[in-house]
Every structure is written in C-alpha cells, then in structure tokens.
Amino acid sequence: MTYNQIKMALYATYITNYYGYQLMRASSSKEKKRIRTLYSQILLNKLKLDIRVKNPEKIPQDGQFLLISNHRSVIDPLIIEVATQNSNIFGHWISKKELYNSFFFGLFVKNAGTILLDRVNSQMGAFFSEIKTQVQAGDSIYIFPEGTRNKSENTLGDFKDGSRIIAMKNRLNMLPVFIKTNADKKLMSSLQDGEKRRVIEVEFGDIINYKEKSLSLEEAYKKEFNIA
Prior knowledge:
Layout: H1 3-24, H2 29-46, E1 49-53, E2 66-69, H3 76-83, E3 91-96, H4 97-100, H5 106-111, E4 114-117, H6 125-136, E5 140-143, H7 162-170, E6 174-179, H8 183-192, E7 198-204, H9 217-224
Parallel strand pairs: 1-7, 2-5, 2-6, 3-4, 3-5
Antiparallel strand pairs: 6-7
Helix pairs in contact: 1-2, 2-3
C-alpha cells in the first residue's frame, strides 16, 4: 500500500466509526439522513471525488420508492446519499451480513438505517417483515439489484429477483439510478494520486411502476439508460 492509501484507510476508519456513534444517537429518519449525507460529503471530498447529477430535475422531492442502482464500488452508497441530498426521501439500505460484522463498517451500518440480508439464512420472513415495517413508517428502500459489486468489464451485472419481489410486496414504485462513471476506477485513481479532483456522474431515470410487467426489471433499467 502507498502512503496515501494507508493515510486514507486510517482516516476513513476513524470518520466511519465517529459517525457510526453519531448515528446511534439519531432519533429520526431526518436526522439519520443528515448524518449520512454529511459523512458521505466529508469522505468523498477527502478523496477529491465530486458527484455531478446529470438531471437533478428527475429526483423526487417526496414520496416512497424502491431506489435501484448499479453497483461497482464500495463508495456507491455514499454517491447515492450525496446525489439525493436535496430530496426529503430517506431510504433504508439493504445490507449484507458481512458489513454488519465488519470492523470498518459495522458500527456505521448497524445504526445508519439498514436492513440485514443474511444470504445463508433460508428463512427470509424476518427480512421481508422488516422491510414492510420501514415502508409502513413512511420510508423508502435502497437496493443494488445486482446483489453484489460488478467487477466485470460489463456495464451491468445480472439482476436478482429480490428487487421486483420487494417492490410488489410493498407496492413501491421504483426509482432507477445509474452511476454512469466507473466509481471503482475513480476511487483507485484517487488513492494512487490524491492531488487531482475527479468527477463521478450520476443519472436518474423515470419512475418504474411496480405493476409494470411487460419487461423484466433488468430490461426496464437498461432501456431507461440506453444500456446495451
């Protein structure tokens, strides 16, 4: 690891746990959104990564949605938080068990407003019940339909079935988001050369009705952003 990478790793560990403690004391979704946004802004700014939304007019100011986004990097949730900072929408991230047990992310993830997805647990009742509880409370759900980071050269990985099921069960229309820039490559470049500012572009699509079945969710997403 380079000196800059070590320095950033130490800083990121400190700030992630610091805001994890702040989130423990947050008593409302509004306060959690404020803290999550602030944390994301600080860390991305430290990395000299600027988020540019191509079409901010498409971001809903209010409402409940299943926000669906492509997934290439560990900083994708931060990118989404900054991109939606001026909206009143607050979403609970679907989070895998590994993040809950992580020394680096654990405290933050457990308190930030997340719903645990345990892939080795065949009993999914508690998972869907928690989603229903948060939706009934007025919040949205944020998910990466690919299920894991896309490390291939393809623009998009295969979508899993879970996102469509969540939308249908909770009558949530879907808000598609496309991180157009390969954020993982930008992150790696930043860690190697921390002097230059870099831009990550994000695009929002039109709302996809949860009742829409003429296309699969993956096909509808690709059509929305003209992905071949």
